[in-house]
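Q: For a teaching handout, I want to show students what a protein-ligand complex looks like in token form. Below are the inputs, and the small molecule is guanosine-5'-triphosphate. Please produce the holo structure.
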Amino acid sequence: MLNSLHAELASTRLFAGVSFDAIERLLEHCRVVEVPADTVLLDPAVPNEHLYVLLDGQVDVHLTTLSQPYYMRLGAGECVGEMSMIEARETSAYVMVSSRSRMLVLTRDTMWSLINASHALARNMLVTLSGRVRQGNDAVRDSIHRQSEFESLAFVDGLTGLHNRRWLDQAFRRQLERGLLDGKPLSILMIDIDHFKRFNDTHGHVSGDRSLRAVALALNDNLRPGDLLARYGGEEFAVLLPDTGAPQAVAIAERLRRAVAEPKAPLAADLPGLSISLGDTQMRPGDTLERMLERADTALYKAKSAGRNRVCSA
Ligand SMILES: Nc1nc2c(ncn2[C@@H]2O[C@H](COP(=O)(O)OP(=O)(O)OP(=O)(O)O)[C@@H](O)[C@H]2O)c(=O)[nH]1
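A: Here is the structure, written as tokens, with guanosine-5'-triphosphate included.
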């Protein structure tokens, strides 16, 4: 019986390469148990008194609650409960038996006796613990990565893929502060699609969305790498042109207007074309983002009143 157990243990992480002569007597104190599926083996709220070496079956590790998906699934050859055994503390996770399992159960005393009796087992324990630390680090890194993905998603407009108003508020403000310090010129354009309500009413919202994306792409394709573009809201866009004075800003605005009115490769080729109106303004001493946006908006309103599909300056 013991010899067949040795054979099984020899293929586990904890007992790999361990000479059983030195520990045979200690193993006699251990139990091999069968545990049905859905048994909660470890629970952070319940003190743990055992280390389990999985001989057969499968257990799931859940980090926060058992109702959350498992974080890690462990099979034959793995062990659980070693950290709480060594530290004599509560377990750091839940462990639930996910399919009927056979396990060798060690008490804390037996575990320490085994570690004292076998260098190989002590080394295996170190390697196991180091693996747990690495898994912990990986989990932290993944969660930081996911968090930064969520944060960057919070700055992106879902329909057009452009940056959104929240991003604009920060990025434009930062750039304006830099401009005020450097004393270099800086311009802002406000852009609005012409008669977009009529377009939606005539062709439907789905076509409206496609055209909105096509306009966003045309704007993006016709700006320089350092220019900042955002969807301001609805069918309105805003552009910040760093290091750009009035004549150049008007030329860029004109290039954007043409790119939409006379697209080279229209994305929504099956839909009627659209035009945009633009208002531009330049940074003045002591300017604020709000004042610049307001002036650009007033200029845009002039462009609309003057017949649309044109650029007007503040
Ligand atoms: N399809 C679609 N339509 C939108 C979206 N956001 C805003 N709109 C529509 O854009 C239209 C804007 O209408 P208005 O503000 O009256 O302006 P307009 O019809 O473009 O007229 P002018 O600006 O004066 O040329 C509204 O009908 C909105 O519903 C969007 O994400 N998708």
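A: Two things your students might notice: Residues 159, 192-198, 200, 205, 208-209, 212, 234-235, 304, 308 surround guanosine-5'-triphosphate (CB under 6 Å). The chain has a mean pLDDT of 93.
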